[in-house]
């Protein structure tokens, strides 16, 4: 602190003669009234301060005050954080309602005039789509008033195909098998979603595997199938979860179908006259029998005629849609270990094996005898690199183009690359012998056309997310920026906020 | 709460981690045990079937773990001391046994190696 005493004023004063001044008193003046006690008092102890030199064996460092531990709130309860992470928001009340947006229906899913427009998903169907986990948390559903998907060329083809199988006609009972690939953000998962939505409108039965990865990372229980086949494994909890998805989504269809054959594996629990919904619920209630229940359900749904003695009330089975999203996780060793601590190949898991076996052409009857569609998508973002799978996909494309497997230009695995033969064999399907069964195809999703991109961007503008004049030049620019109309990139451009002067 | 080899584990604990709490069972042994009884690695103690608990307990009781293993460990050291080997001497002197330098950094040896060795 600076003293208020001014030294310059002080110097001007004449020094007072010493004798005149009273003798200086050592005692403090404050207690001048009682002087004696102060005089006899012991000299005041020096305050213990840190200023002095350090004493022997005494640290002289700055003593920090210890921070009081911050009171921690209780950690979130079990499953709360995961629920938040996996939460799917399908509606944004701040976005504008798009006027004149049609809902997907069995009529307009084949309407070529709607190409490039966005069709809303019918609101009652959303619970079904949620049940089969068609929506993924990272998709941008939460920015629009209600979920909708753009109708592109592939969507119309899909619509025509699904419509053809469902209607009476020459296509009834046909089945197709497709592996959907494409660059990242090209709309593979949404393509599957569109297929599911169309299948629901046509009263198909939909089986989905939304996360194939979950089956092979050893996060769900497993057990050997039986004592005779110690190298095959069932995953009861995962199977029960799939049954539960299927029952929730297809309740109306399964309620109206009844058991049409004996199920020796289920013994007495499967009774004659049971609906398929009740049958599937057996497996949900008791995961220990989930796999036999699933097999029974599958054989019921693929039945073309009732077994003798079960003729009463047999209804023809609906077509089926089977989707798997993220196939390549199934093409390597799983994280599970056998009893001898050897890694278990994903193809030795019965669940995986079942869905991969559908890709093979059936010998007596097709894999899906009542017609239907297998849509197996790869993923471009969560994708282990598996050489043999890449080769297998090339081989499918070559076979589709009409190349014979013995032709010299037919793509073969490099003999020095240790390609997994099981993977290549899984996709090595001969031409189907049955007329209604389609050959395994590879469908590559690319970008939208400019017209489709324009329709998509107009949807953003009409939802109030994009404040731009949508004209051909602007759309062309964004189309190019999005790598030739890759829809995921277009969405990023459309949702990006921009300040408009 | 589930009893595995006489120890009570809360149901929310991982099986793997619970097994590793026994002296003598580490990552490798616990992984192999889990694989032997077809238990996945993220399984919780509460999810185990009764039979699996019994199987694990039976397997653990056959293994040399906990006090048996500790006793063997101490016996081995004792044998070294009694035969008068260099290693036994180092154990008794509280110095590192395996040729480490002793100028600095021998805290572990000072702490552990002594006449009446404890684990």
Automatic annotation (TrEMBL), chain A:
A GO MF term: structural constituent of ribosome
Location (main, coarse): mitochondrion
CC terms in the record's Gene Ontology section: mitochondrial small ribosomal subunit
KW Protein biosynthesis (keyword) present: no
Alphabetized UniProt keyword annotations: Mitochondrion, Ribonucleoprotein, Ribosomal protein, Transit peptide
Domain of life: Eukaryota
Region listing for Disordered, in residue ranges: 48-81
Biased composition annotated in UniProt, kind: Basic and acidic residues: 70-81
Pfam families: DAP3
Localization per Swiss-Prot or TrEMBL: Mitochondrion
InterPro entries per the UniProt record, alphabetical: Ribosomal_mS29
Homology family: Belongs to the mitochondrion-specific ribosomal protein mS29 family.
PANTHER family: MITOCHONDRIAL 28S RIBOSOMAL PROTEIN S29, SMALL RIBOSOMAL SUBUNIT PROTEIN MS29
Name of the protein in question: Small ribosomal subunit protein mS29
Automatic annotation (TrEMBL), chain B:
Source superkingdom: Eukaryota
GO cellular component, one term: small ribosomal subunit
Name of the featured protein: Ribosomal protein S13
Keyword Ribonucleoprotein in record: yes
Pfam family, one: Ribosomal_S13
InterPro entries: Rbsml_uS13_C (IPR027437), Ribosomal_uS13 (IPR001892), Ribosomal_uS13-like_H2TH (IPR010979), Ribosomal_uS13_CS (IPR018269)
GO BP annotations listed: translation
GO terms, molecular function: RNA binding; structural constituent of ribosome
Organism: Aspergillus coremiiformis
Family: Belongs to the universal ribosomal protein uS13 family.
Keywords tagged on the record: Ribonucleoprotein, Ribosomal protein
């Amino acid at each position: 602190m600076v003293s208020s005493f001014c030294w310059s004023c002080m110097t001007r004063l004449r020094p007072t003669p010493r004798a005149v001044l009273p003798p200086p008193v050592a005692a403090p003046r404050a207690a001048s009234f009682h002087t004696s006690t102060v005089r006899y008092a012991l000299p005041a102890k020096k305050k213990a301060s840190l200023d002095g030199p350090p004493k022997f064996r005494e640290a002289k460092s700055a003593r920090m005050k210890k921070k009081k531990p911050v009171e921690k709130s209780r950690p979130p309860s079990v499953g709360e954080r995961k629920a938040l992470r996996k939460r799917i928001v399908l509606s944004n009340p701040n976005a504008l309602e798009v006027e004149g947006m049609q809902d997907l229906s069995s009529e307009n899913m084949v309407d070529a005039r709607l190409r490039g427009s966005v069709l809303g998903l019918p609101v009652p169907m959303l619970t079904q789509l949620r049940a089969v986990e068609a929506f993924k948390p990272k998709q941008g559903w939460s920015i629009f008033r209600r979920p909708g998907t753009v109708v592109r060329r592939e969507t119309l083809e899909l619509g025509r195909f699904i419509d053809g199988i469902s209607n009476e006609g020459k296509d009834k009972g046909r089945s197709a098998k497709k592996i959907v690939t494409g660059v990242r953000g090209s709309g593979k998962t949404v393509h599957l979603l569109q297929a599911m939505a169309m299948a629901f409108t046509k009263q198909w039965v939909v089986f989905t595997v939304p996360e194939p990865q979950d089956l092979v990372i050893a996060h769900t229980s497993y057990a050997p199938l039986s004592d005779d086949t110690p190298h095959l494994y069932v995953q009861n909890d995962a199977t029960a979860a799939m049954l539960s998805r299927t029952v929730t989504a297809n309740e109306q269809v399964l309620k109206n179908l009844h058991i049409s054959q004996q199920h020796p594996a289920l013994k007495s629990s499967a009774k004659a006259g049971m609906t398929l919904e009740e049958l599937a619920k057996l497996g949900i209630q008791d995961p220990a029998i989930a796999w036999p229940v699933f097999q029974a359900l599958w054989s019921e749904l693929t039945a073309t005629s009732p077994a003798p003695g079960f003729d009463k009330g047999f209804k023809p089975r609906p077509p089926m849609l089977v989707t798997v999203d993220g196939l390549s996780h199934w093409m390597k060793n799983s994280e599970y270990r056998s009893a001898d601590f050897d890694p278990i190949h994903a193809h030795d898991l019965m669940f995986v094996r079942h869905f991969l076996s559908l890709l093979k052409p059936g010998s007596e009857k097709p894999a899906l005898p009542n017609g239907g569609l297998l849509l197996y998508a790869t993923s471009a973002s969560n994708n282990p690199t598996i050489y043999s799978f890449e080769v297998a996909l090339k081989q499918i494309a070559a076979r589709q183009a009409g190349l014979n497997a013995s032709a010299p230009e037919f793509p073969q695995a490099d003999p020095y690359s240790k390609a997994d033969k099981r993977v290549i064999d899984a996709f090595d399907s001969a031409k189907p012998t049955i007329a209604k069964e389609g050959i395994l195809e590879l469908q590559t999703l690319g970008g939208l056309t400019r017209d489709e991109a324009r329709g998509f961007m107009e949807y953003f503008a009409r939802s109030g997310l994009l404040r731009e004049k949508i004209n051909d030049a602007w759309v062309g620019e964004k189309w190019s920026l999005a790598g030739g109309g890759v829809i995921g990139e277009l969405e990023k451009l459309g949702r990006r906020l921009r300040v408009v002067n | 709460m589930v009893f595995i080899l006489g120890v009570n584990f809360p149901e929310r604990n991982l099986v793997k981690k619970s097994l590793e709490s026994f002296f003598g069972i580490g990552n490798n042994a616990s992984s192999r045990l889990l694989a032997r009884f077809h238990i996945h690695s993220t399984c919780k103690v509460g999810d185990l079937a009764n039979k699996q608990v019994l199987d694990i307990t039976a397997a653990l009781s056959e293994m040399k773990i906990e006090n048996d293993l500790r006793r063997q460990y101490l016996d081995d050291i004792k044998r070294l001391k009694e035969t008068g080997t260099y290693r036994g001497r180092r154990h008794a002197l509280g110095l590192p046994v395996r040729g480490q330098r002793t100028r600095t950094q021998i805290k572990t040896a000072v702490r552990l190696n002594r006449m009446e060795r404890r684990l």
